[in-house]
Automatic annotation (TrEMBL):
Taxonomic lineage of the native organism: Bacteria, Bacillati, Actinomycetota, Actinomycetes, Kitasatosporales
InterPro entries: TPR-like_helical_dom_sf
Highest taxon, organism lineage: Bacteria
Annotated source species: Streptomyces glycanivorans
Protein name in the entry: Tetratricopeptide repeat protein
Length: 452
């Protein structure tokens, strides 16, 4: 067993049995196969089997399953063992196991170790371990969390202020006002601390200086204003926020207060222009559905996609049509979009027809239409075609379709084989060795080939 090989297979999910299929094997009662594969270097089988044994009270056996993997000094294996130990009330053993990895400089191990220390009364030590890495956004985020437990908010704030003062110009252009700050989230983290300290005005002022206002669909300033019931300020901020995340937070607050009409009005005001509605059409439709107004939700998306038929919006609309028993109307809407595009229908939109046709009892027709589509022989079309054949009870045909693209469909094909009871065939398919891609040394010339 080799740490580099384990890491490559776990990261890329190649030449291994992936977590969903391990769960599927256990669900179907194939425990002996999972146990056997766990002893042959299948990491996800070992992890699933160890957790199952731990849940059954067979703790030492669970640790034995992980031991060969931990012996390679591969951090994910050590982390899994530490998590089990902590869950069983053996925190000191978990700390002792994790410490060498953290001290060796692995940032993932360091963050895990610091949070582990903080959960078990050693938050001061955790803070001191992290402070040297304050320029790393990931470590800085952990440090601010640990600081709260350690009662060291002001110490963390001083570190962050120092990093903000040390910001340098992002480029050599004298007209560029952008600054490069390390950590990149220093302003956000300092605002978090100031809010914890009750210094709300300072937190708000800080957050108004950000260059990036939304991260992962959330706006920290909008969340802060909502938490502190500053609705008037939240309304004003929502009106100026391009992304629509602030108005979404405003609508959520209003809905929580049973002011559904106010929430709808907030979305409609923001979405008065097509560009605004592009950002809020989906959350507005979800709000309407939650309150039994599905037909209104459909109308919002139908009207918007008449002039902006982006696939993700059309997909949401087609799902609503299906959920409300109006699949034929969904097909008619797709027909209208196709007509506006001179009869052309790329796969991204075409595939939305398939579940609607199945709902209308046209599964066989959907299968034939897929085979006839210009992209019907591609690997991504194979996924959809296989699903439909499977639903039609034509399981062997479904497997044959996936077999035409062995390099990319092994996981889905293995799932089909498992459901057919062909466990060994599925395992052999998943464990086929994959040649690792090699990156040639750069010769100094830039590529002129697409997409570059």
């Amino acid at each position: 067993m080799d740490a580099d090989d384990l890491d490559y297979r776990a990261r890329t999910l190649t030449a291994c049995i992936p977590p969903p299929l391990v769960a599927r094997l256990l669900e179907l009662g194939h425990e002996r196969e999972v146990e056997f594969q766990a002893g042959r270097g299948e990491w996800f089988c070992a992890l699933g089997w160890a957790r199952l044994l731990g849940n059954r009270g067979q703790r030492e056996q669970a640790l034995e399953v992980l031991s060969p993997y931990v012996a390679t000094n591969w951090w994910p294996a050590a982390q899994a063992r530490a998590e089990l130990l902590e869950g069983w009330g053996r925190a000191e053993e978990a700390i002792a196991l994790s410490r060498p990895y953290a001290e060796a400089g692995d940032r993932l191990a360091l963050v895990f170790f610091a949070r582990l220390l903080a959960r078990h009364g050693h938050s001061g030590e955790a803070f001191m371990l992290l402070r040297a890495g304050i320029q790393d956004w990931f470590l800085a985020d952990c440090l601010v969390d640990v600081a709260e437990t350690a009662g060291m908010d002001e110490e963390a704030a001083v570190l962050l202020e120092g990093r903000m003062e040390a910001a340098v110009p992002a480029c050599n252009d004298p007209d560029c006002d952008n600054r490069r700050m390390e950590p990149s989230n220093a302003v956000d983290l300092l605002a978090t601390i100031r809010e914890r300290q009750g210094r709300i005005e300072e937190a708000i002022t800080l957050l108004h200086t950000r260059e990036v206002t939304s991260v992962n669909g959330h706006d920290q300033l909008a969340d802060l204003l909502a938490r502190h019931d500053r609705i008037t300020e939240l309304r004003a901020y929502a009106a100026s926020d391009y992304h629509g995340h602030a108005v979404q937070r405003l609508a959520e607050v209003l809905e929580e207060r049973d002011d559904v009409e106010g929430a709808i009005a907030a979305y409609r005001t923001f979405g008065a222009t097509p560009s605004g509605m592009w950002h809020v059409a989906v959350p507005l439709s979800e709000l309407l559905v939650r309150h039994g107004r599905g037909n209104e939700a459909i109308e919002v998306l139908r009207a918007h996609t008449e002039h902006d038929a982006e696939d993700w919006l059309v997909h949401t609309l087609c799902t609503l049509y299906a959920d409300h028993g109006r699949s034929r109307e969904g097909l008619a809407h797709l027909d209208a979009i196709k007509a506006r595009r001179d009869g052309k229908e790329d796969w991204d939109l075409f595939q939305m027809r398939l579940p609607l046709m199945a709902d209308c009892g046209l599964l066989d027709e959907a299968i034939e239409l897929t085979r006839a589509h210009p992209e019907g022989d591609t690997r991504y079309a194979a996924w959809a075609l296989s699903d439909m054949l499977d639903k039609a009870g034509r399981t062997e045909e479904a497997d044959a379709v996936l077999a035409q693209h062995p390099a990319v469909n092994s996981s889905l094909r293995a799932e089909r084989l498992i459901d057919l009871g062909r466990i060994q065939d599925a395992v052999r398919l998943l464990q086929q060795p994959i040649r690792k891609p090699t990156t040639p040394a750069w010769d100094g010339a830039y590529s002129t080939e697409p997409p570059f």
